[in-house]
Here is the input.
Amino acid sequence: MRSFTYERATDAVAAARAVAQRPGAKFLAGGTNLLDLMKLEIETPTHLVDVQDLGFDTIEKTGDGGLRIGALVTNTDLAADARVRRDYGVLSRAILAGASGQLRNKASTAGNLLQRTRCPYFYDTNMACNKRKPGDGCAAIGGYSRQLGVIGVSSSCIATFPGDMAVAMRVLDAVVETVDAGGQRRSIPIADFHRLWGDHPEQDTTLRPGELITAVVLPKPLGGRHFYEKVRDRASYAYALVSVAAVIQRDGSGRVAFGGVAPKPWRVEAAEALLPQGAEAVTARAFQGATPTKDNAFKLPLATRALAAVLAQAGTPAQKKG
Amino acid sequence: MSDTAEFALSRRGVLAGSAASAVAAAAPAGAAPQRLPSSATPTMPVRLTVNGESRELALDPRTTLLDALREHLHLTGTKKGCDHGQCGACTVIVEGRRINSCLSLALQHDGDAITTIEGLGTPDKLHPMQAAFVKHDGYQCGYCTPGQICSAVAVLDEIKRDVPSHVQGDLTAKARFSNMELRERMSGNICRCGAYSNIAEAVAEVAGERA
Here is the structure.
């Protein structure tokens, strides 16, 4: 690990300023992803601003019947919250499908959104990676790409966003709240938070330098039945090959987003409108224009089957008809 | 052990000794000591309460909680397996929650109370989970065992506190112990010897259930 200096921030704007003013500075929350990457020298911050004392660790009701989740609420506490379990089951389910008990106890809400890809070529510093080193090339393209992206990828990067929590938040239309070094606050819809790689895969999100996440807001509950179907290589403690977050209403309408397939949680509203017609209609539309490799083409039928499994559990009209 | 104490060598002692002699053999006489990159980083103070005892350290900021426990406080019960949060051998209980001590800086835990395997029980007075692991042979080589035991103790507490799990059918129902629940909740602790079935029996006994 490269050496760095460390401070504990006591004020959010001061923390944002400390990171904005110092090239190489980074925020530190739970550290479960950042520390791992620092050990491998994939991340080499020169200064860490530990934000754990900023107090963003509560879940509160909002004026319009939603929930404001503090950026530092742990994954365990968020998944265990009685309101989340009752009204936003897809979110509890997604979080519980990810990582291990130990990691969820330390990992934060904001940190989960900011976790970096698990592309093996990003992790192997002997390999070319545009995300790790802009302009370096991409060894994943033409390499072993079984886990990698099938849609929304670019000619410079085919990595996926690896998380589960954000996929559920995308279905719920969550909003990310931030503050910057000037004290300016911003609300970013989760749909606009993660970037498609394009020519700049080194930029995972639309956050500006020094911009600090303070909370994630969930709009008022959607009702319906909530599902998070995750398909992975082992029964627990593995990243998704494909995951489906869904909220399905009694009449068969609903919302659906896919994880493990793209640089961001993949939700296509025009595809959701086809939910009453069944899984195949939805995924045909959601994955229109997909560019899978021969290694990961299986993700397309897998997404259809995972969604079909959800719809079968939901017992929607389309399924009953079939 | 007492009659052989004179000859007793710990594995750690042998490894440390042989590493030192290897360095000695490799270094030409009179060579300047190698400058370590850590010398550039000033240490920072950190206070931890470890197994009920207040400990003060001055650490390079890079020091993980795991290394602080093992290398600085010499509590070597906590093990370094993968050092990347994948195996669970480094599991300790911090402020009542189990975490991977390898993925935390010691500085993040200034003021925290930490329980390691040494704090759960002693050879003369085993924690019930330790006793159950012995009774059910919940290990083979034993390397993952301290992490397994710390994790298992925390898992039973998590169920008591109604922390839900991935395999729970009804999210709004209260968390309950079962073999499936245990397997899911312990998935962050890998045992390469494959002692899982005996580990499950040991934990089930402490939980008061059948595995």
